[in-house]
């Protein structure tokens, strides 16, 4: 059982390291979103995707280890969360301490990453709202009823305008 716990700690530690690699990438993404550099944003997104693929592989490995721990303990692996594992490991203080430490580190790293990603989400949403606003201004200017056309005799003639906008996501 101690070997499985060590393997779990090792896998979680590797996951934490990769999540930590995502933090500067997410910070750079913030700067790129603010600059509105779409090419750089695409590069960063590709880099994030490659990193996430590594995390997914480690996540599958962690799930395998949990299944193995469940088998050894004759318990359903779906019921083995950190709280349950900590309770089971009361008599193994060293392994329990290692697991608790990496769990806390991983939790802190993920909380930092969630904060940055939430900020990026808000920036992207604001950018989309600004694009929509600009599109609506362009459309309303183009279709405003105050547009006048003149005939040969320089007499003002009103041209009927379409009453609908071409792009209005809120309708």
Please give a structural write-up.
With 171 residues, the chain is mainly alpha-helical. It has helices spanning 2-35, 38-73, 82-88, 93-142, and strands at 148-150, 156-158.
Radius of gyration: 28 Å
Strands, count: 2
Biggest sheet record: 2 strands, antiparallel
* Fraction of residues in helix: over 70%
Please state roughly what percent of the residues sit in beta strands, choosing from under 5%, 5-15%, 15-25%, 25-35%, 35-45% or over 45%. Answer: under 5%
Overall, the morphology is: elongated
Query: Which regions contain 5 or more consecutive residues with pLDDT less than 50?
Result: 163-171
Secondary-structure-derived class: mainly alpha
As laid out across the biggest beta sheet, the strand order is: 1-2
Arithmetic mean pLDDT: 85
Cα distance, first to last residue?
60 Å
Number of helices: 4
The helix/strand series, from N terminus to C terminus, equals HHHHEE
């Amino acid at each position: 059982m101690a070997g499985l716990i060590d393997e779990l700690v090792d896998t979680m530690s590797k996951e934490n390291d990769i999540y930590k690699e995502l933090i500067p990438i997410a910070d750079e993404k913030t700067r790129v979103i603010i600059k509105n550099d779409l090419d750089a944003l695409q590069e960063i997104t590709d880099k994030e995707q490659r990193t996430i693929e590594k995390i997914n592989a480690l996540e599958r490995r962690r799930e395998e280890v949990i299944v193995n721990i469940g088998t050894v303990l004759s318990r359903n692996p779906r019921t083995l969360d950190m709280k349950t594992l900590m309770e089971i490991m009361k008599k193994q203080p060293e392994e329990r301490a290692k697991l608790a430490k990496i769990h806390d580190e991983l939790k802190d790293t993920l909380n930092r990453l969630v904060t940055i990603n939430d900020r990026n989400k808000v920036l992207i949403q604001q950018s989309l709202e600004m694009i929509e606003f600009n599109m609506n201004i362009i459309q309303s200017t183009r279709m405003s009823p105050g547009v006048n056309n003149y005939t040969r005799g320089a007499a003002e003639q009103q041209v009927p305008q379409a009453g609908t906008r071409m792009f209005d996501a809120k309708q």
